[in-house]
Amino acid sequence: MNIPRFWAEARAQHRERGKQVTVRRFGWSATSESEAQANAQARADEALERLLAGEKLDRREPKVAYNGAEGVPIREEIIAEHGTDVITRNSYGALCLNTPDVLFADIDFSTSVPDKLGCIFCMVLILVSAELAWKIGSWRCFFFLSAISGVIGWLIASGVHKAYLALNGGSERLAIKRISEFIATQPAWRLRLYRTPAGLRLLAMHRVFAPEEPAVKVFFNAIRADPVYVTMCQRQKCFRARVSPKPWRIGIGRHLKPRPGIWPVRSEAVPAREAWVKAYHEKACGFAACRLVSEMGNGKVDDRARDVQHLHDQLCRAETDLPIA
Predict the structure, then answer these.
(1) Which of 8, 38, 115, 203 could be disulfide-bonded to 192 (CB atoms 3.0-4.6 Å)?
(2) pLDDT in tens, 63-116
(3) Domain coordinates in residue numbering, the chain
């Protein structure tokens, strides 16, 4: 896990036969701006050399905070550090707990139709359309019926999916069933289960994990963890949990200033950012980020996991009756 305090950007250029190639790269450091600048220049020079050698590379890196950067650390303001655990402010203003070795997992409840199911119904109807068009002898009829089949197929798939969820007690009950089935096969495991506004959160209490180890992948697959979260755990070599409310869920319609709120911000934008943050935290005091539901499994509690759990629960207000947001 790497969350630097200092960031810089550098460029490297090459001119040949009247054409100029410019490559820009970010650099970072835990200690100083000068070290971040040196890192940026070294990365830009390396990228230019690879580009001139024929490798296909982006000439400019995207400036993203967390969930889009490949090979770039988490780019967020550090609010507090608790040993190896770091509290950051994300791009829309909420606080996040980042930990290198204590396993969190998020499950989002989605009512959207699974792609495979939608495709199956669409393909069946298209095949029926093809047969009808063949009998009629009209390709124009086929294209017309195929277009209608796409719409009708997704509508049918949506109805089937909703009926399946209703018959099985809804998304939450299905998710808890998957978790229960997993924990029943893992006698050494112990999990804390939390309710979030849009799903569930799990915290493993029995031992620490490396994000890339096979057991983590098996766990994520078994509980059907949020795919974006899974990808970012692997990219950023850490686990992560949002520990304060999302602004729009607590009545704050204004976006974190400047927009996007990717760290660091220009010095002239700092007062507006600080004013937004103050208003946000005054409102956030009346809400929780998640609520503890239960503990699952009989494994022993690991001391390191317990420390992170205490920090997480305190920041989230997870054992209060406050509304979750």
Answers:
(1) 203
(2) 877 765 677 899 999 999 999 999 999 989 999 999 999 999 999 886 555 555
(3) 6-61, 80-110+169-316
